[in-house]
Specification:
mainly alpha; rod-shaped
Length: 107
């Protein structure tokens, strides 16, 4: 009877060890799967952030380009006005230079 009790205990311990090994194996599998899912999520989030960053960058680039175009048009108008003003005074400046050269001669 003691032998049967000992064998029953030994059988129960072996069964418990088998259950423990299986539980550890399943826990490792669950952990690996969780790590895999985390890595995939990180990659997806990184991709999402890159796409978002790129779209924000494109928006800012378009805004800056538009501002540059507007400023270019304004600066072009200012330069044209300055050139027109200089052309309007060109005849008077040429006349003054001519009169000075003619009246002073070669000195």
């Amino acid at each position: 009877m003691a032998k049967e009790l000992f064998e029953a205990i030994q059988s129960a311990e072996e069964s418990a060890e088998a259950v423990l090994r299986e539980a550890q194996h399943q826990a490792r599998d669950v952990l690996k799967e969780a790590e895999t899912v985390c890595v995939e999520n990180e990659r997806a989030m990184a991709h999402e952030h890159r796409v978002l960053y790129q779209s924000i960058l494109e928006e800012k680039k378009a805004t800056v380009n538009e501002r540059i175009k507007q400023q270019h048009a304004e600066k072009q108008k200012q330069q044209d006005a300055f050139v027109d003003q200089a052309r309007a005074q060109l005849d008077a400046a040429a006349q003054i230079i001519f009169e000075r050269v003619v009246s002073d001669g070669n000195r």
